[in-house]
Amino acid sequence: MRQTFLPFALPDVDDTELSQIKEVLDSGWITTGAKTHQFEQAFAQAVGAKYAIAVNSCTAAMHLALEAIGLQTGDEVITTPYTFAATAEVIRYFGAKPVLVDINVTDFNINPELIDRNLTTRTRAVMPIHIAGLPADLDSIDDLADHRNLAVIEDAAHAFPAQYKGQIIGQSTHGGKNPRLTCFSFYATKTITTGEGGMITTANETIADRCRMMALHGISKDAWKRYTAEGSWYYEIIAPGYKYNLTDIASAMGMAQLAKAERMAQRRRDIAQRYNQIFKEMPQLQIPFERSDCQHAWHLYMLRLNLERLKISRNQFIEELKARHIGVSVHFIPLHLHPYYRQTYGYQPTDFPIAYQEYQREISLPIYSKMSDADVQDVLEAVVEIAQIYAV
Ligand SMILES: *Cc1c(COP(=O)(O)O)cnc(C)c1O
User: Which site in 11, 46, 105, 172 is 20 to 30 Å from 260, CA atoms measured?
Assistant: First the structure.
């Protein structure tokens, strides 16, 4: 058994982040400026997006996305309960209603048929989550969006870099008249990190301009330049915006992370493959779903327990892993089980039976590029040992 605790997630940082950050510190300009502009350009290029707006979180990105499509009080936005707090809370910021629909049992992603059944005259947008880094069924979602005049706001917090049918998530080549916006997270545990950070990509210029303006107090374009040589003291407030800009210090880190994103993704793919190889032989375990027409970002490795094959619960399984010094997590506690959503909308656990059922047998295992082969082996051995000891 391993002697030291293996964290569930660790950032992959080294001297390249330090030298990028030093460059910013030495420049004398540490908040949003040239480095952030450079990061936006580099990120747009990495995903093939027309426009990219850097912000200080994915939560901010999704808030700005909903603002840019003009979400109003009383409107409805369709998403799933199988996500983090952020996806639904930003809908509540507008006094709009998150209309939750259940997930596919295969892959934890939104079930497009349920979107169709839950559309009303107040539905303005759909927010699919590319959960764990596996893209949601974007073709079906786009079809619906086109027919029913809906915006699509992708919660791509897990999905850099990922692909859906050859299209990179964030590429936004969707030709329809309804805007598509993709929101990424650079939170500490995500596939690339700036500590805290996020990005909006879109192909729609009007939407991009609105997001950019609202991310910085709703003041006229390039306001941050007002302290530079070419800048002017004059600015205009167009709307009551927010303070969501990303700093150049964070963007410096983002540049270093982007440079190694493919290496880190390859390492996660290798770890997933190694886990799959061993776990797929075990009747106590169900390995994550994959699609041959998608490239998985493997932000999470969402293992499922076949509880009828085990004498212990998921929670006990986690305790056993902890006792073996393996850090794990659960993704996610479905939103409808939380007090706020239960009390506000009167949800019962079985209102979303698949989300409820799959949540109770899910464990997320460590999967990050800093893991050594020995770390991976430790996780494998611990999981296999527990599954065998407690097999029915
Ligand atoms: C992490 C996460 C977010 C929020 O990202 P922040 O950058 O921390 O705001 C949103 N959605 C999902 C699914 C996430 O996992």
Answer: 172
CA gap 57, 195 in Å, rounded: 10
* Architecture of the 15-259 domain: 3-Layer(aba) Sandwich (3.40)
Q: Determine if the pTM surpasses 0.90.
A: yes
As a whole number, mean pLDDT of residues 16-35 equals 97
- The domains of the chain are located at 15-259, 261-389
pLDDT tens track for 115-129: 999 999 999 999 999
Nearest CA to ligand 1 atom 5: 58
The DSSP result for 311-337, as a single string, is SS-HHHHHHHHHHTTB--B-S---GGG
Angle at 128 (CA atoms; ends 126, 131), nearest 5 degrees: 170
Does 190 qualify as catalytic in the annotation? yes
Query: Nearest CA to 155 among 65, 261, 253, 290?
Result: 65
Catalytic residue among 190, 280, 311, 322: 190
The atom number, within ligand 1, closest to the CA of 155 reads 11
3-state secondary structure of 9: coil
